Structures are given as structure tokens and as C-alpha cells.
Amino acid sequence: MSASPFPVRTTTWACSICGADAPRAYRMGMYTIGDTRFNLVRCRDCSLVYVNPRPNEATLGAMYRDESDYANGYNLGVEDQNYFERKDELIALAGVAWERIEQETESQGRALELGSAGGFFLEAARCRGWDVAGVELSPHAVRYCKGEFDFPVFEGWLEDAPYEPDSFDLAIADNVLEHTTDPRGTLRQLRPLIKPGGHVLVIVPTYVNSAFFRLVNLTQRILPRKLLGPKLCSMLKIGDSDGGYPYHILEFNRANVIELVKSAGFEVLRVEGSLPRPAHLFKAKDLSRVNRLWKGIFVLLDHLMALRLAPAARIRLLAKRPVHST
Q1: Closest by CA position to 49, among listed 313, 253, 258
Q2: Which pLDDT value is given to residue 218?
Q3: Residue 19: what are its φ and ψ, rounded to 5°?
Q4: Could you give the CA distance from residue 189 to residue 121 in angstroms, rounded to a whole number?
Q5: CA torsion, points 266, 166, 318, 140, in degrees to nearest 10?
Q6: What SS3 string covers 211-228?
Q7: Which residues, listed in sequence order, are joined to residue 320 by a DSSP beta bridge?
Q8: Which class in CATH covers the domain with range 80-203+252-269+316-326?
Q9: Among 150, 154, 79, 145, CA closest to 114
Q10: Contact present, 313 and 210 (Cβ < 8 Å)
Q11: pLDDT tens string 218-240
Q12: How far is residue 272's CA from residue 215's CA, in Å, rounded to a whole number?
């Protein structure tokens, strides 16, 4: 292991969903910063999986000032390219996502993205006529966004952002809540910024808190790693891999996410599961017979997750702020 580029301090904490301090071991040495390893535990009461001990606030801040995460894929380990090099691709994909959002919410107006990164998702919305704004912790991402696009992005925490109550028709928290120390508090801070009757879209990865991951954890010593290949082994987190920085300090499941959003004062409208698709399978022009087989398996699992016939690797939840609410 290499030395950490910044001081590493840790703190212990209780479950941020139910408040219980009843962890049991889940996956040891899941993440690392330099020579400091971080373990995953699982709450005995509500089954939330979380890093414990976790990096303290100063260490978390230092992690987000480090630019390496964007260079190493950024998207759940399924991408090979630097995040910023995928600008055109990600704006195009975001345009498809916004078309769906507009159909679901039957609206268009002002949108806020929490964790807006380089601004690609918001730029796609702006091109469709939305008035957009973002909140982002990474100074590098904020600098990039301000240099590329013409919309406001606040660098810092949501509670410090200069946005007025009832000023957004839609808020998006896409792969954000798993990074937070208080996800319920984050959603409660977001709620008053949304107009009554407005919507919130929450997307979180759930693979690490799924039956699939637990099965992989139990059987990894006998899994055919040559057949899987190094990229799938890394994505599935097989073996004594260096999982990188502990950005995902929380790992939800379907029940956790629904309970969390409801307890923050939102009305849940739609919940669905899906599976991120690895770039080396879905972007490659020429695939080996084995990789064609794996590609088909991923497509099948994605459909099964959408039908709730398999545990989801990712949850997409659409909710709204009730009209008669404060």
C-alpha cells in the first residue's frame, strides 16, 4: 500500500437509519486510504450496511478534494474512462434520462442536483429548457463545471447553499446519499427547497447490501476468476481487492431507501431496481464468446431486477413533496 496523501482520522458511529449501535461484521478491509483499512458492518436491527469506523469529517473533506476518483472511473467501477473525458456521452445519456423524468413528473421548471459533479446531467436539462442549479463538494468538479457551463453551482454542503425555500420543481440525489453521514438529515434539508407538489429523484447503489454480494462474499474462494475476468472480479468486489477510498460509507437496500425517503417527509411514487452495465461488455465492438455470454447475463439480470425477481444492484426512487406540507 502507498502512503496516504493526507492525514487519516477515524470515528465510530451508530446506524444512521435506525440509530441502533448494534453492528455485526460484514466485510473486512473493504476500503483503504494509504495503509488504513476500513471495514463494513451491518446493523442487526435494520440491515443497513455501513463503514465503521469511518473517516472523520476532516478526512472525508480531504477525500473529496482528491481528484483521483474522477480519473478511476467514478461510476461504481463499471467505467474505464476518466469521468471528464465522457462529457458528450454523459450529456447524451442524461438527455434520455430527462425525457423520462419529464414524462413521469409531467413538468418542467427549475431543478437542483445534489452532488452535481462536472455538471453534465444539469447541462442536458438546461438544453431542454430547465433552469438548473447544483451543489457539489469537489473543488475540482466545481471548477470544471463553472468553466464549461453557464449555470450556478455552489461548492460546499447543502445546508450552506444560498437557495430559497419552495424554489425548485425537482431535486436530484443521484449516487449521493451513500456518501453522507446523515442521509435523513440531507433529505430533510432538501425537502423545503422543493415546491409543494414538486418531486425528488433518489438513486443509490444497493449491490453491496444485496443477497448477490453476500453470496459472492461466501463463495469467492471457489468462483472461477479466470472465467469472470479481472474487470468483473473488480466490479463484483471479489477477493482481497483494494476497494479504494471509502466514499460509500453507507450501503442501502430497497427497504432502507423507502423508509429513509418516507421518514424525511416525502410521498414515494415509484421504486425500481436495475443493474449498472460494465463498459468493457457494453461498449466493446468485438467480444469474445465468454464476454458475449456475460453481456447476456447482465441484460437478463437487469430485466429480473426491474421485475423484482432478483435483488437490485441499484435503486431508483421517485417521490414528491406533499402539496399540503410545511
Answers
A1: 253
A2: 86
A3: 85, -5
A4: 22
A5: -120
A6: HHHHHHHHHCCCCCHHHH
A7: 199, 267
A8: alpha beta
A9: 154
A10: yes
A11: 888 777 777 778 777 877 887 66
A12: 22
What residue segments make up the domains of the chain, in order of their start?
1-66+207-251, 80-203+252-269+316-326
Could you tell me the end-to-end alpha-carbon distance of the chain, in angstroms, rounded to an integer? 50
CA distance 83 to 117: 10
Q: How do 194-205 and 168-174 pair as beta strands? A: parallel
Residue pointed to by grid coordinates 472480479: 233
The pLDDT tens digits for 72-119 are 555 555 666 788 888 999 999 999 999 999 999 998 999 999 999 999
Joined together, the cell numbers standing for residue 220 give 469467492
* 284: its cell numbers: 466493446
Range 52-75 burial, b when 16+ CB lie within 10 A, else e: bebbbeebbebbbebeebbeebbe
**Cβ contacts of residue 215 below 8 Å, gap of 6+?**
none
Q: Is the pTM of this model over 0.85?
A: yes
Cis? peptide before 53, omega within 30° of 0: yes
Residues in the chain predicted with pLDDT less than 70, given as ranges, are 1-2, 69, 71-80, 239-243, 325-326
